[in-house]
Amino acid sequence: xxxxxxxxxxxxxxxxxxxxxxxxxxxxxxxxxxxxxxxxxxxxxxxxxxxxxxxxxxxxxxxxxxxxxxxxxxxxxxxxxxxx
Length: 84
What we know:
The chain is mainly α.
């Protein structure tokens, strides 16, 4: 079972390194969309999750609530992963 906190830590590192500009402060509570997260960012995150954990988040799980912040995205990812 993968904990949401592990996914959250890895997502934060990935987002800071690969998605957001260095001057953007990203925390577990950062509003992703307000910070510039877009469709290309989402594809990069989905590919990261697939490469790191071997699964793709189904389209129906990608909601406004899931994309609210890093913590909610990690929680969604952990729930989907652990339900497999």
